[in-house]
Fold:
Amino acid sequence: MGERGKSEEMKSRKTNLEPDLDKPESQDSMAKRAHKPEVRLGREAQARIGEQLRTMYNSFANQGVPQHLVDLVRRLSEQDD
Amino acid sequence: MKLDPTIRDQVLATVPSLRAFAISLCGNIDRADDLVQETLLRALAHIDSFQPGTNMPAWLFTILRNLFRSEYRKRRREVEDADGRYAETLKSQPEQTGRVEFEEFRAALAKLPADQREALILVGASGFSYDDAAAICGCAVGTIKSRVNRARMRLAGLLSIDNVDDFGPDRATRAVLVGGGRN
Structure:
């Protein structure tokens, strides 16, 4: 008897940490869970990554095109069917 | 019928960027050049399906990306850790890729999932809009945004780039605040 009484008391003393399993989830919290916005990287960090990425990419692009690829395009575009 | 010189020139003008994209994806100059060659062959064989006046780079990049994907999938079945191999390729051929100072960045790029890597390159380096990148990758704009965002987050972590809050005080101010205004 005493034990049951205790558990009843503990039940009523809800902490914020425990989910309220008795009540249905509110619309609001369901929406928040479904459309949780992704954490985004700060502008400065984004800029630094972008800079390194573009420097690398442009170094590839500025290497010039191998002649055989230029010749290929020229050859294929001259072909008569 | 001979190809319209304007179209031919548009293709030629796109090749450097196409090649840069291929190198960024393949991590190997020779494989990238093979991929670009295959792309050009396919594109010119189906040039009639290109609508003049529309986005030529996007069209070419789509062909290349699809070829890369099917080739990548084929290779993945053969090799267990394809991405690991990609990273190894970059490391082992510095003379070919040429720029040792990007080594750290390229190694980090190699660690991203392929989806994220291609999205980041298309938007961040090749200069495509999110809409065009989504069309090239055959997915929704939201998906591209999400992939780009995740790629950036992951790279920042790998490269130990500090994620300073946009709206927080700048670094100098923070240093002063943290130091209690002294020194």
Remarks:
- Chain B has a mean pLDDT of 83.
- Residues 109 and 117 of chain B are 7 Å apart (CA to CA).
- Chain B touches chain A through 47 residues (CB under 8 Å).
